[in-house]
Amino acid sequence: MSYPLDQITALAKANGELVLKFAEIARSGGEEYAQIGSKAATLFVDQLKELKPGTVPSFKSEAVTSLFGEVEKSREASVSKIKAAVDEWQGSWKDLLSQTTNQQELSDTFRTWFQPLTKQLSVAEPEKAKAPAAPAPAKAFATA
Fold this sequence. Notes:
By secondary structure, the protein is mainly alpha-helical. The chain has 3 helices and no strands. The protein has helices spanning 4-49, 61-99, 103-130. It is elongated, with a radius of gyration of 28 Å.
């Protein structure tokens, strides 16, 4: 027999794995952007080396277009990795929740655990509305 704590633990594990995948995607994307930035800086410096006094630099459009192409490829790769990670995460949630033998017991466990939080949030909202405005700053005494 499966207990709600087993499903909750498995769901938490799935959430943790999703966060780790997002961190890995961000790290690898950052490395790719750093490499592209390095190429752009090299291109810029090489163009400036060839610059003669009194002339305006004309950056080679094919090189700039190539850099933008690399940025776009990197972005698309990151988006596809994120989509795959989210799809896998959704699949694991779906599988775990479909295996739950007693959905009501799982729902009750979640409700019990988060009831103090929901009560606290529902009480905090009206208090924000009733909170008095900040006191006016004290006026300095005039000396004559």
